[in-house]
Write a structure and sequence with these properties.
The chain is mainly alpha-helical. The protein has eight helices and no strands. The two termini are about 30 Å apart. The structure holds zinc ion. Zinc ion binds next to helix 8.
């Protein structure tokens, strides 16, 4: 399995291909930028290795503890973290759950301390409008995140095959001696 820095390098090497392909598919500069940025986020911060104390986990800084329950619940390199689509989907849902919790706490604090009279309705409406108005942009985010995750899983699988072959070769060389 490649180390965190190797994964970072692979993400950077893949970036030009992702950007060119995104432009080839969308013919849109804003969507290309969104896919590319989401790809970087998917590779550097929201990647499959959040299931261990990896470099991706460290990059969450003071908020990295939010990934501890995820690490406890999900086995390293399991399908739930490294599998295509399910890995990204689960991380996005997991992060959304934390964001909702933070929103509830923030809203309650504002209501108690400043009588802000915020309700789910006041918060939900702008989000719904944002979602409807920028559907293709949201889709671009999801696609970028997924490509970032897939590039990680492919390099993991490639790294494992390579080290297995190396081990076999070493064993064979020992037998020949
Ligand atoms: Zn991994």
């Amino acid at each position: 399995m490649p180390a965190g820095r190797t994964h970072d390098r692979i993400t950077l090497w893949c970036l030009p291909f992702v950007t060119i392909s995104a432009f080839g598919f969308t013919y849109s500069l804003p969507l290309t930028v969104i896919v590319s940025l989401a790809f970087l986020v998917g590779g550097f911060m929201l990647g499959p290795d959040l299931d261990i104390r990896s470099i991706q986990y460290v990059r969450w800084g003071p908020l990295r503890w939010i990934w501890l329950p995820y690490q406890i619940a999900i086995k390293h390199r399991s399908r739930l973290s490294h599998g295509p689509i399910i890995g990204t989907a689960l991380r996005v849902v997991y992060l959304a759950a934390w964001l909702s919790l933070f929103t509830v706490v923030g809203m309650s604090l504002l209501n108690v301390l400043w009588d802000a009279q915020l309700t789910w309705q006041t918060i939900r409406e702008p989000f719904r409008l944002l979602f409807r108005k920028y559907l293709s942009e949201w889709l671009a985010v999801v696609v970028g995140l997924e490509i970032g995750s897939i590039s990680h899983s492919i390099s993991d699988a490639f790294g494992s095959t390579l080290s297995r072959q190396r081990r076999k070769k070493r064993k064979a060389a020992k037998k020949d001696k």
